[in-house]
Each structure stands twice: as structure tokens, then as C-alpha cells.
């Protein structure tokens, strides 16, 4: 048995981990360049976007084959994506400058923002000169990586059991361009758990599949999606406890991203069961999170179950209208070929859709595959935010 207790300080809940942010002038009046630093070299695992046009920071990590680091430099407002070899050279130049200010071990740079623009190296170097490398502000770092986010996303836990104890904390950013494939927008997780090196990557990938890979805001996959897991190895370790704690961290951050979807007013869980297998359940659930017609129905609080059925039928999974069941929470609107959607049922379903968060259940009645995906509605504000993104 083990206990997982919420604690404060996000990624800085770990002894020897420092973080902060400064104002470099990329945003009007907020932190926009941040750092994570460790007293010791950290073992790391990471997952990156499967977008074919991966950004320069991702290419740099792969090129250097980085397995350990003690410093991550992050900036917002510029993705450093589709910038070619020059984008990688810009990173090398910036990190070389960083090394003149503090001892670093295979430093990493992570970026988010506008695609197709070279980094302003001078501003970033001036930001580095402002860093207090001994600062321990997870919140400032969380704010520094925000773009269209409306709030900071951070969490931390202490885990105790017969094996001993360890801590784990995380920060993330993301609100738009969210349909992760192997990762999310940007996420940084620190821990002192003494995880065997050969388990880190597999555990991160496993938990990512049911958290960040189960969310969608708008169906778009970024060029910069990244998840980093870093450990000091100074705590204790239990595999079951660590997986559960990592799941809590990543699920909290993933759901915060859905809740913060650009202009979103609803956060909805699509619970698909009875699919032929887990993969088909995931296909159906993700189709529902990405459907524009479903999203607009959510925004309008319209229990238009026909859009849900249509999306399932178009998703490519095995399905049969005589076996299908659709419910808004506990209100069944369609049951194995029978339409139950009368005036009273519609009113009940509409009341459920007025909530900020709720679940829609879809039972395909075919097999035992199940998967839950998380999405949000599509509002007028989403169009406005993205129409004005560069201006």
C-alpha cells in the first residue's frame, strides 16, 4: 500500500531542482523565457510529436542523443519550427552563451509559439543574464511557457509506502493546437524516484497513452509537442506507486489543457466501451473529441446524439446500430436500435450539457475494448484567438 499526497511547489518540490522565469519582451508584460536547473545531472526520458515537421529543439535533442542533462531553457512566442539548419545553429549559439554563465551538462532548449520564425537570440541571451539560477519558482516557469493559455498548469505529490518515499511534480502548457501524437504541447516532470534507467521510457510511454494522447482541443498536432521526465534518483522507488503517481500528474495536466482549450466552455469525457478491441475504442473516442459537429453541439448545449452516432460510424471502427448505446451521463438517448429521445429525455440531456464538465458514454456492444478520450467544445472565441494569433 502507498499514499499519494498533494504538495506544493510543482517541479521545484524536488530538492536540488531550481526553476524560474524572466520577462524578455516577447510578451507584453509577463514571463516568456524560463529555466529548469539541477544541482546534479538528471536521467531523462522524453516523447516528441509525430508531426513530420519536428521543430529545431526536438531535432537538436535527437541529434545530440541526450540522455542526461542538468539544464532546460524554454521560451514562448516562438516555436523555432521550420527554420532549417539555422534553427539548430541558433540553439547551439544560445546554449554556448548559457555555458559562459553557469556550468551545464548537455543543456536542452524547448520552444513554443509561432512557426516559421527564427529565434531572437539577443533577447534570449539578455533573458539568460537576468536569471537567478538559485530561484525555486515552478510558477514563474509555468507562466514563462504559456502562449494562449489562460492559467498556469502545475501539480506535485509526495508518495509514501513501505518502500520509502519519493516526490514528483510537473508543469505543462497547452490550450490550442492540441491533438497529441506521442506527447502534448510542452510538459516537464521532475522526480527524485530511483527509477531504473531501462524502465523510464516505457513507463512514460505507457502513461502518456492514457493521458496526453487521450486529449484533443482542435484536432491539430503541433510541431513542438514534448514531454520530459527527469529524475535525481535521490528518493526511493516502487514501480506500482510510481506509475500511479505519474498517471495522476499527467492526467491532471492533460485535463487542465482540455479545460483551458482556447475559448472552451465545456470539458467532456467520451467514454467508449464495447469496441472490438482497445485500438478501435481509441479510434472512436478520439473521433468524437475531434469532430467539429460534435464540438459545436457541445458549445450549443444541444444533445444532438445523431452527431455522435454519425461520427462513430465514420470513424472506421466495427459498429452496428442494433448494438449501439449512447448516454449523456445516466440519461440514455439511444439503446440498441431504440430511439428514446423524447421531449422529457431531451430536457434531461440538455440540463447535463449545461455543466462545465460531464461524460458522454458510447457502448458499441461488439467486444470488450474500452478507452476514454477528453475533449472540449468549439466556441466563437476559438476562432477569434486563432485568427489573431500572430497579431
TrEMBL record:
EC number from the UniProt entry: 2.3.1.35, 2.3.1.1
Gene3D superfamilies: ArgJ beta chain, C-terminal domain (3.10.20.340), L-amino peptidase D-ALA esterase/amidase (3.60.70.12)
CDD domains: OAT
InterPro entries: Arg_biosynth_ArgJ, ArgJ-like_dom_sf, ArgJ_beta_C
Key words, A-Z: Acyltransferase, Amino-acid biosynthesis, Arginine biosynthesis, Autocatalytic cleavage, Cytoplasm, Multifunctional enzyme, Transferase
Metal-binding found in the keyword field: no
Localization terms from the record: Cytoplasm
Site entry (Cleavage), positions: 183-184
A GO molecular-function descriptor: L-glutamate N-acetyltransferase activity, acting on acetyl-L-ornithine as donor
Catalytic activity: N(2)-acetyl-L-ornithine + L-glutamate = N-acetyl-L-glutamate + L-ornithine; L-glutamate + acetyl-CoA = N-acetyl-L-glutamate + CoA + H(+)
Site (Involved in the stabilization of negative charge on the oxyanion by the formation of the oxyanion hole): 112-113
Location, primary (coarse class): cytoplasm
Residues at the catalytic site: 184 (nucleophile)
Pathway assignment: Amino-acid biosynthesis; L-arginine biosynthesis; N(2)-acetyl-L-ornithine from L-glutamate: step 1/4; Amino-acid biosynthesis; L-arginine biosynthesis; L-ornithine and N-acetyl-L-glutamate from L-glutamate and N(2)-acetyl-L-ornithine (cyclic): step 1/1
Function, in words: Catalyzes two activities which are involved in the cyclic version of arginine biosynthesis: the synthesis of N-acetylglutamate from glutamate and acetyl-CoA as the acetyl donor, and of ornithine by transacetylation between N(2)-acetylornithine and glutamate.
HAMAP family xrefs: ArgJ
Quaternary data: Heterotetramer of two alpha and two beta chains.
Protein name (database record): Arginine biosynthesis bifunctional protein ArgJ
Native organism: Caminibacter mediatlanticus TB-2
Amino acid at each position: 500500500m502507498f499514499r499519494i499526497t498533494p504538495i506544493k511547489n510543482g517541479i521545484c518540490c524536488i530538492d536540488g531542482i531550481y526553476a524560474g522565469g524572466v520577462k524578455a519582451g516577447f510578451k507584453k508584460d509577463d514571463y516568456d523565457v524560463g529555466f529548469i536547473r539541477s544541482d546534479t545531472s538528471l536521467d531523462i526520458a522524453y516523447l516528441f510529436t509525430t508531426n513530420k515537421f519536428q521543430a529545431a529543439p526536438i531535432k537538436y535533442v535527437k541529434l545530440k542523443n541526450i540522455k542526461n542533462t542538468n539544464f532546460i531553457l524554454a521560451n514562448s512566442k516562438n516555436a523555432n519550427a521550420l527554420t532549417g539548419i539555422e534553427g539548430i545553429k541558433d540553439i547551439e549559439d544560445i546554449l554556448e552563451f548559457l555555458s559562459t554563465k553557469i556550468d551545464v551538462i548537455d543543456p536542452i532548449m524547448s520552444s513554443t509559439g509561432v512557426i516559421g520564425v527564427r529565434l531572437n537570440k539577443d533577447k534570449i541571451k539578455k533573458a539568460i543574464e537576468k536569471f537567478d539560477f538559485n530561484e525555486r519558482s515552478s510558477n514563474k516557469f509555468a507562466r514563462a511557457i504559456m502562449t494562449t493559455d489562460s492559467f498556469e498548469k502545475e501539480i506535485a505529490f509526495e508518495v509514501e509506502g513501505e518502500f520509502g518515499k519519493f516526490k514528483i511534480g510537473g508543469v505543462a502548457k497547452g490550450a490550442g493546437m492540441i491533438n497529441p501524437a506521442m506527447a502534448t504541447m510542452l510538459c516537464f516532470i521532475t522526480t527524485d524516484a530511483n527509477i531504473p534507467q531501462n524502465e523510464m521510457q516505457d513507463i512514460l510511454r505507457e502513461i502518456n497513452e492514457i493521458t496526453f494522447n487521450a486529449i484533443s482541443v482542435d484536432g491539430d498536432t503541433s510541431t513542438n509537442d514534448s514531454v520530459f521526465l527527469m529524475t535525481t534518483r535521490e528518493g526511493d522507488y516502487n514501480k506500482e506507486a510510481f506509475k500511479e503517481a505519474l498517471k495522476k500528474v499527467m492526467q491532471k495536466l492533460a485535463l487542465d489543457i482540455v479545460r483551458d482549450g482556447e475559448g472552451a466552455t465545456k470539458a467532456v469525457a467520451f467514454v467508449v466501451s464495447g469496441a472490438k478491441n482497445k485500438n478501435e475504442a481509441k479510434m472512436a473516442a478520439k473521433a468524437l473529441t475531434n469532430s467539429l459537429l460534435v464540438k459545436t453541439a457541445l458549445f450549443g448545449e444541444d444533445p444532438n446524439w445523431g452527431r455522435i452516432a454519425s461520427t462513430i460510424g465514420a470513424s472506421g471502427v466495427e459498429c452496428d446500430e442494433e448494438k449501439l448505446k449512447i448516454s449523456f451521463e445516466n440519461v440514455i438517448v439511444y439503446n440498441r436500435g431504440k430511439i428514446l429521445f423524447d421531449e422529457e429525455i431531451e430536457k434531461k440531456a440538455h440540463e447535463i450539457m449545461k455543466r462545465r464538465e460531464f461524460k458522454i458514454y458510447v457502448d458499441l456492444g461488439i467486444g470488450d475494448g474500452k478507452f476514454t478520450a477528453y475533449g472540449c467544445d468549439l466556441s466563437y472565441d476559438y476562432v477569434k484567438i486563432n485568427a489573431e494569433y500572430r497579431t
